[in-house]
Each structure stands twice: as C-alpha cells, then as structure tokens.
Please model this.
Amino acid sequence: MKSTKPRVVVVGAGFGGLRVARALRDGSVDVTIVDQHNYHTFIPLLYQVATAGLEPEAIAQPVRRIVRANNVRFRLARVTGVDVARRRVLTDDGEIEYDYVVLAAGSVTNYFGLDSAADSSSALRGLDDAEALRSRILKAFEAAANEPDASRRTELMTTVVVGGGPTGIEIAGALSELRKHVLPHDFPGIDTSHARVVLLEAAGHLLGGMHRSMQRRALSDLEKMGVDVRLNAKVADADRSGVTLVSGERIPAGTVIWVAGVRAPSLVESMPAAKGSLGRICVTESLHLPDDDRVYVIGDSAHVGGPSSLPHPMLAPVAIQQGELAAGNILRHIACMELERFKYRDRGTMVTIGRSRAVARIYGLRFSGFLAWIIWLTVHLVWLIGFRNRALVLVNWAWNYLTYDRGVLLIRDRR
Ligand SMILES: Cc1cc2nc3c(=O)[nH]c(=O)nc-3n(C[C@H](O)[C@H](O)[C@H](O)COP(=O)(O)OP(=O)(O)OC[C@H]3O[C@@H](n4cnc5c(N)ncnc54)[C@H](O)[C@@H]3O)c2cc1C
Model:
C-alpha cells in the first residue's frame, strides 16, 4: 500500500544531509536521501589520504549503513535541479516527488575565475581528489628519480600548496613530514633533502578568521618543519609545471595543490533563488527559501539571513546543527507549529600542523602544541562514523606515529 506520510527528499549525504535523515528516523515522514556517491566522506581527514597516511576506505562509510531505518531510503543519483513549482527533485535517474526538500549539496573548489588553475592543479574536495593527489605527488617523485638534471629534479620534488587556511596548513605539514621521514627511505637514489614544500597565502597571515596567536603559532611551526611559507603571495597563473605570482615570480613545481577556498556547486547556482556570499542560497533564519517553506537549504550551500547577514563559516558543525534544525522545522511545519530560528553554537576550531603539533580553540580556551594535537586526534576519532573506521584510523595513526612510516604509498592512476 502506498504510504500517505509526508515525503522528505534530502539532497546530499554529507554532514548536513545525514543529520537530517538521522533526525527523521522516528517514522512520521518518509525520507529519501540522494547522493552521487553511495558513501559518506569524512572530509576533515581527506588530506591524510592524499599524503598516504590513511586508506580511502578508512574515512568513508556506505550511506545505507549509516541511515538504516524503515522510513529512510537511499537513492544513488546525481541531482540536476529542483523543480519547486512541481515539487520534484530532478536527477540523472528520473524525478523524485517531495513534500519537503532539503538541499545539502555542500561546496566545490573555488578557483576565483583562474581557469588555468582549475585545469592544471589538484583540488581536495572528495575521495577521488585525495587519491588522485596522492598519485600525482608520488608520480612527481618517480619522475625525479629518473631525472638526470639536478635543477629539474628539484622542481619535480617541489610541491606548491595554494591557500593558507586550515586545509593548506594540514597538507603542507603532512607533506613536510612525508618528505623528511618517509621518502628518503623509499627513494634512496635521490637527495630528497632538496624536496620543497611551498605554502602560498594571498593575505598577510595564515588561518584567516582565527585568533592571532593561533596564526602566529601555525606559521612558526610550519617554518620549523621546513615549509617555505610565503604570505602576501597571490597567484596570478598556474600550469602543470608551477605557478606564477602576481609579483611576477615564477615557482616551478612538480605538484600544485589548490586549497584556496570553496564556493557553491553548480546545482546550487542553478536554483531560482537569491544568492549570497560565494553563490550560497539565501535562506531565512528558519533555513527555508524566503518564498517557499517546503524548500530548505543547509550547510555550505546556505547563506542564512541573506546578503545583509554575515555568512556562517563553511564548517561541518554548522552543517550538522542546521541539519538538526531543518529536520525539526519540517516536523514543526507538519504539526502547524511555529518554526525555530538557527543559532550557531560555536564550540571551537582546531587545526593540526604535524606530528605533535596543532592549534585549538575550545569553548574560548586556546591550546597549542602536543596537548592541542592530542585533543585534535581524540575529537576526530570520536567524530568519525562507524566503529570499523575508528579502528582502522587508530591502527594507522599508531603505526605512522611509532614507525614514522606511511603505508599507502600507491600510485593508482598512471595517467
Ligand atoms: C579538505 C577539506 C577539509 C575540511 N576540514 C574540516 C574540518 O577539519 N572541520 C570542519 O568542521 N570542517 C571542515 N571542512 C568543511 C566541511 O567539510 C564542510 O563544511 C561540510 O562538509 C559541509 O557539509 P554539507 O553537508 O554542507 O556538505 P558536504 O559534507 O560536502 O556534503 C555534500 C554532499 O552532497 C553530495 N552532492 C553534491 N552535489 C550533488 C549532486 N548534484 N547530486 C547528488 N549529490 C550531490 C556530495 O556527494 C556530498 O556527499 C573541510 C572541507 C574541506 C574541503
């Protein structure tokens, strides 16, 4: 018999979408969660996959396993649009009717209009990106091992990271450790001390938006680790063999990693709704479109309050808390109750810089060094979904810490 319960379609099984589906598991509505992948990715640890510290399987979990419930279905499809007039989600595998839709499609890499960077550099937004980046870094070293010219060898062993935010810092730190502790053993035929990690940041400081003491600590830790940090270094152009700065300086490199920012994906851009910062959709404080209280937008895709309000940071806790509220507001709407407004509870931020090095702000208290690193490890381990993933990550971390080794030095794509 066909169900008569209200149908909620959730687009995206990321941090926000999963929280909506989980919060609606009580059975009063029928939920369909749609994603282009059949797995949820734990994005904060992507950089560890890219730097051979973790297998991709350790940070991904099948969506069906996470949302197991009688009233929740998963659909593997790429969403191409939402027809709000006909209340249908459009996908590459047909249409899905809804009574309520929650758009939680996340964000994509922002190249700030620099097509050359989009074509030539490596991004880090999904599991495929992380695996491709790992291959690219290792292939550059393989090429260096066969390169007779010393200066060309140094160029191939140079990695440029564009963007001094949390991801840029985490990846630069991890690459510096890879260069120091792992690659010398695996490439005994080349002098890997010439391998360079260059971190470029357009602003005059790292970690924009964080406390000055955290910015300074991150800078000094990276420099101690041998990372060549360049502040006020804006990239004008990038290609397969390096980057050119606005100042005219050319930095040749075997690998260029672009982690300078994110923006709304094309699905979000295509929605007939007002856009705010970085192309995110403007929603009310109750998280639905101003003129349609059956269309919710959350997480990286949403700009709460519209252009006149300061956008929330694109962070997992924001998406999770918005997912919780959107689910609650759908149930309140069905029950003809007043909707609640979103208020972000900021518990803090943390960034790991390398082995035993991190900076953290938790409930207003600031930590750095070994203590911050232990807090970072614990929080990320607890936060990961699934016992199997936690066990895999813990074993890998313990192995990496004790042996200074990385187990996943595989080139999976020979292109
Ligand atoms: C490298 C990196 C590291 C980060 N580290 C941290 C961190 O340490 N801490 C932190 O708080 N935040 C971190 N963030 C930010 C955090 O990952 C995002 O803020 C968060 O994932 C946003 O959640 P979301 O639900 O909006 O989107 P996401 O979690 O990105 O989920 C979006 C989902 O939508 C799916 N999707 C997108 N388009 C379509 C489509 N057309 N059809 C079908 N499915 C689609 C995607 O496959 C994905 O599963 C990091 C981000 C990056 C890129």
